[in-house]
Amino acid sequence: MAKIIIIDDEADILNLMSKLCRQQGHEVFPFQTGKEGIAALDRIHPEVMIVDLRIGDMNGLEIIEYSQARYSDTAVIMVTGHGSVETAVEAMKLGAFDYLTKPFELADLVRTIDLALQQRGLPAPNGAKPHLIDLPLVPSKLIGQSPKIREILSIIEKIANNDSPVLLEGEFGSGKQMVARSIHNTSERNRAPFKVLQCSALPEDLLEMELFGLSGGRTESIFSRAAGGTVLLEEIHQLPLRLQAQLESYLESVSARRMAGSLPKSMDVRFIASSDRSLEDCIAAGTFREDFYYKISVIPITVPSLRNRREDIPLLAEYFLERYAQRTGKAKQEIDSYAARLLEQYTWPGNVGELQNAVERACAFSEKGRIRPSDLPPKVTHKVEISDDEQEQVRHSLPLGTKLAEFIRKQEKMFIRETLKYNGGSREKTASMLGVSIATLYRKMGLKLDRDPVLKD
Q: What class, spelled out in words, does domain 147-304 have in CATH?
């Protein structure tokens, strides 16, 4: 059992990490401010400290610097968002043991803590394997039932335990990382780390350090930190040509040692790359090495855009509704049928990520637990202005994306109701004024006489 200090100003994440660490048998001390964490560090002297990079009252780097200057035997694990990976690498230069990028798999946190303790000669508590609580920060499997997604799931089942490199190509936000996570979670490597590195997030020198570490072993590479697990290099088309050559040689060495049965544990990693650009086009433009392309694309998978798998939109929307409810502690909201149709008809240039943002925005704007078209982003509802008269003195906004017959039916129904009100509810006067029979009036309203008080005498 180890003493662990966790510093994170997000209460939900702090509670989640604390609960997970306690389940592993550790003694946990959670704090929401940097000052409280530093005071506890001097008092507790923990084996491990988990620090969020951005805390309200302090910068996480300041805490790491303070810790390493006084308690160098405390292993510090940095938690950071995608946009601050460069700063996380700076944290490792200050002496941090490792960093995790949000959103991360809970198994990654457990694994990183165990590695930190092992490096200091301490065993994992009771030798236990990670026991995860049922509240993942990201979905554990690919969401969808469209033919394209079923085809990808079939491929994943076949290649999950094949160590050949995988190349994922598809538009930005189409879900390539989720496919990679599904490969990892389906494989026998699922209890080992899943590490993600964006090739566009770092300058070339720091990117090289992340990929290959520093000489003398002062800083481990992303591959050694993911030993036994999976590494995903996102935006591989952004990798500089020099590093492409180095990585191609490294992967060739891994392949040769694996075939010879002499692969060290630190190199035993499943390699996955992703790109939102055609690498063949990059080769033609001279920005990507052809030999490297063939090395990383042994198993190519094309991830479809969301507009090419519209039948998956309701499933994804439901998942995001559930996740929003879990995060806020509120009841899960519902989407009315018209708003749901608008979601399915929108083209989603930002793909799954844009859908997630739209659903979360709608949850924030909705009332009485029900999402309506007015709660959706304006670009999703597509409105057109029309006028009531030739002088265009009265204008209305009408949502596009509805079938013409359905729009006409709704407008007829509304007009009939208003005419009924004008005629004091008289069916005969209304039918006569509209030039239709009473039977047609009922049919267009879709209501029975004894169920609609407006239609009664």
A: alpha beta
DSSP track, 40-104: HHHHH--SEEEEESB-SSSBHHHHHHHHHHH-TTSEEEEEE-GGGHHHHHHHHHTT--EEEESS-
Question: Mean pLDDT in the chain?
Answer: 83
DSSP structure class, residue 367: B
Indicate the pTM of the whole model: 0.61
Do 307-383 and 147-304 fall under one CATH topology?
no
CA atoms within 13 A on the CB side of 158: 9
User: For 3-127, CATH number?
Assistant: 3.40.50.2300
> What is the spatial distance between Cα 296 and Cα 350, in angstroms, rounded to a whole number?
26
Mean pLDDT of 308-335: 89
CATH architecture of 307-383: Orthogonal Bundle (1.10)
CA distance 271 to 187: 13
Find the mean pLDDT for residues 253-260: 91
Q: Please choose, from the candidates 21, 19, 23, 24, the residue with its C-alpha nearest in 3D space to the C-alpha of residue 4.
A: 21
Tell me whether residue 361 is exposed, middle or buried, using C-beta atoms within 10 angstroms of its C-beta: 0 to 12, 13 to 18, 19 or more.
middle
Mean pLDDT of 326-334: 84
% of the chain exceeding 70 in pLDDT: 83
Amino acid found at 306? L
Closest among 442, 374, 372, 449 to 412, alpha carbons compared: 442
Instruction: Tell me which residue has tokens 């990670």.
Output: 130
pLDDT at 207: 85
